[in-house]
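Per your request, structure below.
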């Protein structure tokens, strides 16, 4: 039997085989490095498109909550107007019902023309390959959470903080933006409880189908 790694939440203890954790990290590094090389010309085109389409930086940065509740900076291509983050912060401070909260609606007026395409194709997530190389994200994991939401987590929901956030995950292949926050959190907790290296491979395979279909992305 291989060595096992233990991670803790407020009230639970979860154990994962060490060889699977190492395999997950190696896969993350390999895929992220290869993809960054492959998409570098596309990256340049997207940056130019965003800058021509609307004012502001092409790269959007925001503080998210990572493994163990530690904050980190997430990178994405900007898909909204320049002050959209300030408007969202105001909305998040008034959150009282996590179960039914929805981050954005269809036809959100804050989304730019280029942003609609980038979200539909999930190309806005490409800069998160940098997060993977930095070690604060994984290819697969719970959705990266904002601090104003994470502070309201129940002990059960805090289980999702036992692992690195992911570029894709169980929620992303089961509804994406069509899910309420409560549904997303439930999928994230299920992922953490069920996790093994093979589950990541299944989710990655399903992600290709979901991205190409464009279903649930807006």
């Amino acid at each position: 039997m291989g060595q096992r790694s233990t991670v803790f939440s407020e009230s639970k203890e979860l154990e994962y085989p060490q060889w699977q954790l190492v395999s997950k990290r190696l896969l993350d590094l390999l895929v992220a490095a290869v993809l960054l090389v492959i998409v570098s010309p596309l990256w340049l085109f997207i940056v130019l498109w965003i800058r021509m389409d609307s004012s502001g930086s092409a790269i959007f940065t925001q503080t998210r909550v990572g493994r163990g509740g530690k904050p980190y900076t997430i990178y994405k291509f900007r898909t909204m107007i320049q002050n959209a983050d300030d408007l969202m912060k105001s909305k998040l401070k008034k959150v009282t019902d996590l179960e039914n909260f929805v981050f954005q609606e269809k036809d959100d007026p804050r989304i730019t023309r280029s942003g609609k395409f980038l979200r539909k194709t999930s190309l806005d997530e490409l800069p998160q390959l940098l997060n993977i190389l930095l070690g604060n994200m994984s290819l697969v994991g719970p959705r990266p959470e904002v601090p104003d939401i994470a502070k309201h987590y129940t002990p059960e929901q805090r289980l999702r903080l036992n692992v690195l956030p992911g570029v894709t995950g169980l929620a992303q292949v089961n509804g994406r933006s069509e899910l309420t926050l409560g549904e997303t959190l439930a999928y994230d907790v299920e992922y953490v409880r069920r996790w093994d290296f093979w589950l990541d491979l299944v989710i990655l395979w399903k992600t290709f189908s979901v991205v190409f279909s464009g279903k649930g992305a807006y």
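The first strand starts at residue 4 and ends at 8.

Regards,
D.
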